[in-house]
C-alpha cells in the first residue's frame, strides 16, 4: 500500500469540513496497517494505533457529545475506562502499559464508533460557544496523528524482520540554507497573541528580555552527527550533562535511535541513511552534548520564537501547504529554506514551565497541558510527521530529556 | 464461534494420520481468534497464539525437514530467529518478551508455512529411524496446544472488557468420588517402562522406596478453597513456606488467579464459580499452604505415580476418549471417578530433578527437558486443556513455584 | 554530647583563619557521632559522615595541594578513587552507593589526613592567584557541612530506635511576620554582581523582566500543612503535577518526610511537632501542590531574588550572625522577621538552567555546577543547617523534584 | 591482630562449659573488627557482625530466658524488633536490608547484653527438659559464627582498598587423596539416627534406594576450575542449566566470587590463588556446569551421606580436632585425606525438601528449617569456616542456586 495522501484544509475552511478532514486523515494513516499492527504497544510511552483511533473519539464523545448533547448516549459504557488517557477528573482508567492488551474491541468496532460520533457531532458545529472546544479537539486529534506515526514506527522497529508500513523509497533531503539568523537582543514579545486557536500553554503572551544571539539557519545533519560519533562524542564525559552521561552508560547509547551501521529504520523499512538529511530521533541529552561539542549551545524557546516571528509572522508560521511529510516521503512541495518548521522538532534549552499568569482551564480539559510542567523540555517547530497547519511560532512541544522516539533534531545557537 | 471440537486419534493410528490430526487441532484451537488476539503477549511466561502456531512449525522444519531432507529449503530464512524458543544450539533468537511485537508475519503467512511444512513431511513418515523424532514433534505440538489455551486465557484476562474466546456456558462439575487410595509402602517401580513414546525426563525407569501413605481420590474444590480463604489462609504466615509468604506479601495475593468475588474468568468470559469444581490456577506455594492448613501434605511425584499405575496401567493412563476438555466445556464423555487425569495438573512436593542415570539426548533436542532441572516443581496428571492421549502415568510436567496461569490444582496426601 | 557550637568568622577575616574555622566546624559537627554512625549510608543520595570529612579533604589535596605544590605527595595514593565524588576529569571512582561499605579507612586515619592537609595548605594562603580556588574550597566544605547534617539525620531515621545525634530539646519556632512583599514588576538585575565569592552558576549577572507579584513574608508552617492534609491534599489528583501524582501513588506519600502522627524526627530524636515552625522536608511536588491548594503559586527564582535584594542587598543577605542553626537548636540570636534566609530552603518554580552566557570553568572544577543543569529545580534562601555566611541573594541551590531529605520548605507567591 | 584461636569443647563436655565456649568463640571472631566493620551490611543475604552477636543473644533471651524464667525481664524491650531474624510467630521485625543501618545499639551495649544473658542462663543448665532447646541454641550460634565470617568477608570485599580482617598469610593447601569411593547401590539408611543433637530437618531417619555410583575422594581444585575457564566453560550454553545460563548472562559471571586475575580475596586481604586448594565461592549453577563439563555429575545428598557414613560413622563425622579453620589459616592439624568435612560445603543435586514424615517442631522454633524447603539445594560436609564439631554425616546445609558467598565447592560423582 502506498503512503496515505492527506486531504486537509486550512484554518479558513468551515469548521465541519475541517473536522471531517482531520477525522479522515487519522483513518487514512491507519489504513496500511493490519489489525495486529494496530494492536501492539512497544513501550509505555507509546500507544497502539487502534488505541489512538479510539482515544481521540473518546475525547469527542466525552467533552463534546456527552457534555453538550442532553440526549446523547455513550456508544459503549465500558469503553471510557480503556480509552481515557490521563484525565483524572474523568475517573479511573486502564494502566498505560496495558493498552497493548486490547485485542478487543476490533478495528471494525472502533471505526463504527468513529462514524457514530462523527454523525452525532453535526448539530454541535452550529454552537458558537463550542468552537474553542472543537478547535481543541481538532488539535488534539492532530497531535495523535503524529503520535500514531511515531508509535507505530517504534513498534515495527521491534520486529527483527524490519517490516515497512507502506511502500516507496525515502527521498533525498532538500538542500538547507547555510548561515545564521542574528538577533540584536532586547525585549521580545512571545506567546500566542494572534487570533486563532492555540493551546493554553502558549499563553499568556508576555515580554522577555533577550541577549544578542545567533540561530543557525539549518538543522544539524546526519553527516555532522557522524562526525560527532567519530570524534568520540559518546565516549567523552566532559561533553555531557551529568544525567545524560548516566543515561548513556546505563543504556549503552552510541548513536541516535533507529541507526544501525549506515542504515536507518523508517516507515518504509531499513534504508540507507542520507547524510544530508537532518538528524532525528535524538534525546535532549544528545542534542545538548552535540551543541557543546560544536562550540555552540541550544537556543532558548524564546530565542527560537523571536527568530520564527521575525521571519514568518504567527499566522503563516507552519506552511499549510507543507503537508504531512512523513519521514519517508517526498515533500509534495518545497519548503522555504528559511522555514523553521518541518523535518524535525528542535530542542531548546528551556524547561517546560508555565508562562507568567498561566492558569489551566477549568474541568478535565484543564489537565491537557498544565500538569505536565515538570521535568520536561520544550521543543519548537514541527516535524515531517506533524500534520500540516498544526504548528505555529508559539507552539510548545515537550518531552522528557531521555525520550527520542519522536522526530527530534536540533538547530544550534550561539551568543553574540 | 463455538468451542472447537477436536478430531483426534489414539496412538494406534498411522503416524501420518496422527500427524495431520494434531496439526489440524492446533489450527482449530486458534480459529476463534482474530489476528489481533493471536498477536498479543501478556507476560514473559506466555506466548502469542500466532507464535505457537509458528514455533511448532519451526520445530518440524528444523529437526525433521532441514536435518533429514537433503533438498529442503527453508520457507523463510529469517523466521528461525523469531520462532526458535530456547534452543541455544540453534543460535541466537528474539528476546522472549518481544514475541508480542510480531505483528508480522501475518496469520495467513504462518498458515501457508504450516501447509508447506505439512506437505513436505510426507516422505519422512516412511523413515523408521525418524519415528522417535516425529513422536517427539507430535508431543511437542500437543504441549503447545495446551500452552496456547492457557496463554490466550491470560491475555484475554488482561482486557477489562473480559472478552470470551468462544461462545457457550461453563458446565457444572461432575461429582468426584470421596475417599483415599491407600498404599502400603515398599519398593515401587517408577518412570517410563512400557513401549510407546515418552519424554526423556520420564526415564530411566527405576525403583524407589515408599513409606505407607494415602492419596485423596479427589481434587480439592473451589468450595474448600473458599473455606481456606474464610479461615484466614492468606493471612496466616505459619501455613506458608518462607518464599511463598514473601510472594503473597509482595504480590498482594489473596485468591487463586482469575478469581473475582464469586466469579472466575474462563475461556467463555466471566462466569459464576462452581463450588464443586476442582480449584485451578493456584501456585505451588498456595497448594502447599492449603495442604498444611488441611492437616495433610502434597504427595511426592512417586507416590502419585504408584497410585496411578495401580489403577490404570501405563498405556491407559490418560483416557484417550477424554478429549480436549477446555475448562469451559462439558466433557464429551464421563471420566472414571478414579481417574487421576483431567481437570487439573496436580502439584507434588517433588522438585523437578533428573532420574538416576538420566542423560539428555545429543544435539539441540537434548535441550528439551534436561536444562530446566532446577528451581521447578513436578506436577502430575493432566488438565482440562491437555490434549487427549497426551499424558500418562510417568508424565512429568514442571513449573516454577509461583506460576499459576496453567490449570493447576491439588490432591491431598497423608502418611499412614 | 551537646550540640556543637560553631566557631566561625565572617568574610572579612584573613583567609587562613577562615580556612581553619571552616575545617574545625566540619569536625565539630562529626564529633557527637560514633565510628559506626559515621560509616553508614542510608540511600544513594546521601553519604556517610566519614566520607564527607574525607571528600572535602580530597578536594583540597587534589585541586590545591597536588596542582599547586610541586613537591606535594598524596597522603594515600588509593584514596582519591574512593573520595572523588563525581569529577569525571579526575578519573574513575567508587560507585556512589558503595560509600557505605567504607569501614576503612577509620575516622582516626581520616582525621590524621585532615591535619596533614591543613598543615600543607599553609604556604598557599600567600598565593593571590589561588584565592578564588580557596574560596571555592571553603564554600564546598560548607556545602558538605549541611549535607553531613541532613545525611546523618536520614541515616539515624532508619533506625527503629530513633537515636538522637546530640542532647537537648527542640526550641519553639520564633514568630514569623505576616503579610506580603509586593513588587511592581519591570526589569530587575539578577545574578552575582557584587565583589566576593560566588559559585559560577550565580552568574553572569543579567537583567530579567518581571510581572507585578507578591511574595509572602513568611514560610508555610506545619499548622498550615496539617490543614492541607486534613483537606485531602494528598488524595486530590487535581492539585498535583502529573509526575508528582505518580510519585505520591507509587511511594505511598501522605505527609512530609520525618512526620509520624504528631511527632517529627529531628537531630535530637523524635519530638512533638511545633505547629508554628516552618514545614520542612517536602518535595517540589508537594510544595507545588500546596501552593495550588492555597490558591497561590511558587515564585520564580528571580522574583525571590528581587525581593531579597530589595530588602537586604547582596552582601548582607545571609546574616553572618545567624549561626549554624541546626533544626533542633535555638538560634543564637533572633533573625529579622523580614529575612528570607534561615529555617528552610525555599522552592521556586524555576528549573535549574544556565544563565545567559554562562560558561563552566575550565578543568575538573568546571564540573562543579554546570553539568547538573537538567531535571532539577532551584531553591533559594538558606536553611537551619546552612553554615552562617554561606548563602546570599544570588545563591542557587538545586535538587530533583522528588527529593526531600534537605530542610526544604516554601514561601507562597501570587500575581498582582 | 592475629587470627582468633578458638577455645572449643567436644560434645562430651558439660553443657554449661560448652555454652560458654561457644559464646566466647563468637566474641573472639568479632574481636578483630572495628565498630564500623561490625556495622556494615553488604547485601540483603548478609548481616552485620554486630547484628549476628545480638541476634543469637535474642535467641537465648527469647526462647530460653523469657519462656522459661518466670521473673526474667528483657534487657531492652525494643531490641527484639531489630534482632529477630525471620520468626513470624515472634512478631514484626525490621526489614532485612535495614540491618546495616543499626549504628546503635553500640557494640559495647551488645556485649553488655551478651554478658547479662550469659549470666541469666545459669539456672537453666540444670533443667533436663531444656537440654534439646539449649543444644539448638548452641547449634544456632555456631551457624551464625560461620555466617559472621562469610558475611564480613563479603562486606570487606566491597571496599576497593581490600582490607584484611586479621594478619597472617594463607597457607598452602594440604594434598588431597586421589581416587573414587565406590558404592554398590542398594538400600541405605539415611538421616539422623544416633544419639546427640541434630536439626529437625535431618530426620526422620529413613531408607533410600541407591544405584551403584562413585564419589570422588577429593574436592575440585582451583587449578581444575582454571581449566574449565580456559576451555570456555562460562561461554558454553550447552553446559549450563537454563536458569544458570540466564544468571551467567545477566550478572556477567566469568569466574568464582572473589577471584580477580591470579588473586583471590580472603580474610587476610588479596592473596595469590593456590592452584591446589579446593575451589570455593561458586554457585550451584557453576558446580553443575563444571560437573557436566567434566563428564560427571553432582552426587545426591544420600549418595554423599552413604559414603560419609561408610567411612566415619555419625559421631566422628566432623573431626572435633579439625578446628575452626578459617580460609586463610593453617589447619591446626592435618585432616584425614578420606574426610568429607572441612574446606568447603559440597553441592549435591538434591533439592532441599522434607524427609518422609517430617514434622516441624511446634511454636516459633518450628520456623527454624521447615519453611525454607522450596527453591534451595542441599550442601553436605562442612567448610573451613564451620566451627569444629558442628557438622555431621546427616547435616543438611541449604542455599539458593545462585548464592556463592559461602565457602561452597564440589566433589564429583558418576554412575557405575
TrEMBL record, chains A, B, C, D:
Involved pathway(s): Amino-acid biosynthesis; ergothioneine biosynthesis
A Pfam family assignment: FGE-sulfatase
Sulfatase-modifying factor enzyme-like domain sequence ranges: 181-316
Protein name in the entry: Ergothioneine biosynthesis protein EgtB
GO annotation, biological process: ergothioneine biosynthetic process
Keywords: Iron, Oxidoreductase
InterPro entries referenced in this protein's UniProt entry, alphabetically: CTDL_fold (IPR016187), DinB-like (IPR024775), EgtB (IPR017806), Sulfatase_Mod_Factor_Kinase (IPR051043), SUMF_dom (IPR005532), SUMF_sf (IPR042095)
Domain named DinB-like: residues: 19-127
Lineage top rank: taxon: Bacteria
Amino acid at each position: 500500500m502506498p503512503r496515505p495522501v492527506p486531504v486537509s484544509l486550512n484554518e479558513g475552511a468551515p469548521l465541519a469540513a475541517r473536522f471531517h478532514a482531520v477525522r479522515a486523515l487519522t483513518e487514512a494513516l491507519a489504513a496500511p496497517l493490519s489489525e495486529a499492527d494496530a494492536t501492539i504497544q512497544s513501550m509505555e510511552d507509546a500507544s497502539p494505533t487502534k488505541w489512538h483511533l479510539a482515544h481521540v473519539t473518546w475525547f469527542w464523545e466525552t467533552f463534546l457529545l456527552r457534555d453538550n448533547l442532553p440526549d446523547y448516549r455513550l456508544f459503549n459504557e465500558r469503553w471510557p475506562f480503556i480509552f481515557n488517557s490521563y484525565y483524572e477528573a474523568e475517573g479511573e482508567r486502564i494502566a498505560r502499559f496495558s493498552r497493548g492488551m486490547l485485542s478487543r474491541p476490533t478495528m471494525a468496532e472502533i471505526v463504527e464508533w468513529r462514524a457514530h460520533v462523527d454523525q452525532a457531532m453535526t448539530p454541535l458545529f452550529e454552537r458558537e460557544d463550542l468552537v474553542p472546544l472543537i478547535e481543541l479537539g481538532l488539535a488534539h486529534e492532530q497531535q495523535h496523528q503524529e503520535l500514531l506515526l511515531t508509535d507505530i514506527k517504534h513498534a515495527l522497529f521491534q520486529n527483527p524482520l524490519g517490516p515497512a508500513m507502506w511502500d516507496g523509497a525515502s527521498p533525498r533531503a532538500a538542500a538547507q540554507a547555510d548561515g545564521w539568523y542574528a538577533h540584536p537582543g532586547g525585549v521580545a514579545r512571545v506567546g500566542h497573541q494572534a487570533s486563532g486557536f492555540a493551546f493554553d500553554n502558549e499563553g499568556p503572551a508576555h515580554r522577555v528580555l533577550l541577549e544578542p544571539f545567533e540561530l543557525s539557519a539549518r538543522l544539524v545533519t546526519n553527516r555532522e552527527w557522524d562526525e560527532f560519533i567519530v570524534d568520540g562524542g559518546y565516549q567523552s564525559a566532559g561533553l555531557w550533562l551529568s544525567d545524560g552521561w548516566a543515561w548513556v552508560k546505563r543504556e549503552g547509547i552510541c548513536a541516535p535511535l533507529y541507526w544501525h551501521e549506515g542504515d536507518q529504520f523508517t516507515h518504509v523499512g531499513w534504508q540507507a541513511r542520507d547524510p544530508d538529511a537532518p538528524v532525528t530521533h535524538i534525546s535532549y541529552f544528545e542534542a545538548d552534548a552535540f551543541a557543546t561539542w560544536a562550540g555552540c549551545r541550544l537556543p532558548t524557546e524564546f530565542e527560537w520564537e523571536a527568530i520564527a516571528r521575525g521571519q514568518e509572522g504567527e499566522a503563516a508560521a507552519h506552511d499549510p501547504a507543507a503537508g504531512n511529510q512523513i519521514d519517508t516521503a517526498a515533500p509534495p512541495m518545497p519548503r522555504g529554506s528559511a522555514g523553521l518548521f518541518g523535518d524535525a522538532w528542535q530542542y531548546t534549552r528551556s524547561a517546560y514551565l508555565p508562562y507568567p499568569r498561566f492558569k489551566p482551564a477549568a474541568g478535565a480539559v484543564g489537565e491537557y497541558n498544565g500538569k505536565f510542567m515538570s521535568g520536561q523540555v520544550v521543543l519548537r517547530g514541527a516535524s515531517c510527521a506533524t500534520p500540516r497547519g498544526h504548528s505555529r511560532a508559539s507552539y510548545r512541544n515537550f518531552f522528557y530529556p531521555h525520550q527520542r522516539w519522536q522526530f527530534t533534531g536540533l538547530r544550534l545557537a550561539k551568543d553574540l
